[in-house]
């Protein structure tokens, strides 16, 4: 059974599965195109695939995780499971090293969980905000800005009117000055005749 768990067997198995699938696809292409070799290629590919699937069914799946190294007895049904950090058959130095590794990993996970909790708290605060009046507030702000814009236009018009009024007053002042000069000349002439 050790050959079936070796890296070379795993490589050969994956190679055969890939090649068998390739032969099936090429055979299917040949069959679809009605070539003479299409039937033989698809048959050969399907036989290889059938053999491989039967072998995979007999051998069983590979383990991905080896939890029994951290928890001895995990693969035995009904055993009393205690982690290596709690004691057991491991040496004190090995237990201390394992405990330190586990503590470091848990410490990192704890800090990440705390940052996630802070983020969730921020999201909860945002969730509790009442946005039901937002539409009404936006309408009120829009009305305010519209009226403010109208007031600014009226003010601009008033400024223009004020400038025209100032120009007219300056013109009137010039006219009055020249009229006063003419009146002064008329008075002087009248007084000298009289």
Question: Can you give a write-up of this model?
Answer:
With 194 residues, the chain is mainly α. It has 3 domains: 1-64; 89-126; 159-194. It is 74% helix and 0% strand. It contains 4 helices and no strands. It has helices spanning 7-32, 38-59, 92-127, 134-193. The chain starts with 6 loop residues before the first helix and ends with a helix. The relative contact order is 0.03. The model has no long low-confidence stretch (mean pLDDT 79).
Main beta-sheet annotation: none
Measured by DSSP, the beta-strand proportion falls in under 5%
What's the domain count?
A: 3
**Sequence stretches where pLDDT stays below 50 over 5 or more residues:** none
How many separate helices? 4
User: Into which percent range does the helicity of residues fall?
Assistant: over 70%
Record keyword descriptors for this entry.
single chain; 194 residues; mainly alpha; 3 domains; 4 helices; 0% strand; elongated
Q: Gist?
A:
The chain is an all-alpha fold and about 190 residues long. It has helices at about 5-30, 40-60, 90-125, 135-194. The chain has three domains: about 1-65; about 90-125; about 160-194.
């Amino acid at each position: 059974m050790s050959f079936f768990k070796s890296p070379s067997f795993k490589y050969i198995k994956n190679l055969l599965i890939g090649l068998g699938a390739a032969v099936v696809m090429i055979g299917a292409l040949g069959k679809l195109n009605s070539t003479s070799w299409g039937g033989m290629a698809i048959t050969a590919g399907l036989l290889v695939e059938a053999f491989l699937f039967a072998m995979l069914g007999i051998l069983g799946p590979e383990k991905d995780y080896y939890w029994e190294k951290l928890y001895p007895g995990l693969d035995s049904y009904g055993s009393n499971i205690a982690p290596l950090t709690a004691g057991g058959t491991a040496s004190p130095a090995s237990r201390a090293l394992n405990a330190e590794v586990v503590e470091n990993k848990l410490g990192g996970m704890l800090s990440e969980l705390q940052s996630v909790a802070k983020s969730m708290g921020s999201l909860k605060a945002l969730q509790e905000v009442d946005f039901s009046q937002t539409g009404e507030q936006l309408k009120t702000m829009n009305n305010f800005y519209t009226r403010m814009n109208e007031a600014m236009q009226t003010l601009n018009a008033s400024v223009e009117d004020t400038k025209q009024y100032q120009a007219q007053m300056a013109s009137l002042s010039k006219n009055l000055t020249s009229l006063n000069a003419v009146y002064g000349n008329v008075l002087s002439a009248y007084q000298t005749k009289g």
